[in-house]
Amino acid sequence: MFLRSGYGPVTVRAVAEATGTSTQTIYNVYGGKAGLVAAIQEAALEGSGPVPAPERSDAMSAREGDADVILGHWAQLSTEVAPRVSPIMLLVRSAAVTDPAMAAMQRQMAEQRRERMSHNAERLLATGQVRPALTRDQVRDVLFTYTAPELFELLVLDGGWSPEQYGDFLHRGLRAQLLP
């Protein structure tokens, strides 16, 4: 409903009617419309596998010693997660222009992404295969930029790229930016 109609026009009452629940239940469980969007975004970040995407990413990067293989796995994981989470993040960005709660959520989502990319940067740097001149923060920023919902929007949603083309672009770009 949010993606079809936008954040503003969708009411808690409409969501309750569409889901066969009460408005009070939505307020009790999610705290309202903004909390519902946050829960949708959080579920989208888990991906479609039986194990949440961040856990799969951590397990893979802990056992893999080749930085290029790690980047390839992260690019592949992005092709699974981005179609689910990017539209929600773009919805939040759009709603943030006029809604203070959504503006706060947008800042929080960006901070969470930045923290996750800091974690991933440390994992990648631990391989000893990253270009020597790059700092942890620079690696983080490259990862943060390449996983931005705006990039998915430009290439896939607006540009018509397939998820495979998008994943290949991410892998080649990350490799070029981060590896010697």
Q: Can you offer a commentary on this structure?
A:
By secondary structure, this protein is mainly α. It has one domain (50-178): Tetracycline Repressor, domain 2. It has 10 helices and no strands. The chain has helices spanning 2-5, 12-19, 23-30, 33-45, 53-63, 67-96, 100-125, 136-146, 149-158, 163-178. Helix 3 (23-30) packs across helix 4, helix 6 (67-96) packs across helix 9 (149-158) and helix 6 packs across helix 10 (163-178). The protein is elongated and about 55 Å long.
Q: What can be said about this structure in brief?
A:
With 180 residues, the chain is mostly helical.
Topology:
Elements: H1 2-5, H2 12-19, H3 23-30, H4 33-45, H5 53-63, H6 67-96, H7 100-125, H8 136-146, H9 149-158, H10 163-178
- The third-level CATH topology is Tetracycline Repressor, domain 2
Q: How far apart are the termini?
A: 45 Å
The CATH class label is: Mainly Alpha
Strand content: under 5%
The share of residues in helices is: over 70%
H/I helix tally: 10
Strand pairing plus helix content: what structural class? Answer: mainly alpha
Please summarize the sheet with the most strands: none
- Chain-averaged pLDDT: 94
CATH architecture: Orthogonal Bundle
Please tag this protein with its features:
180 residues; mainly alpha; Tetracycline Repressor, domain 2; elongated
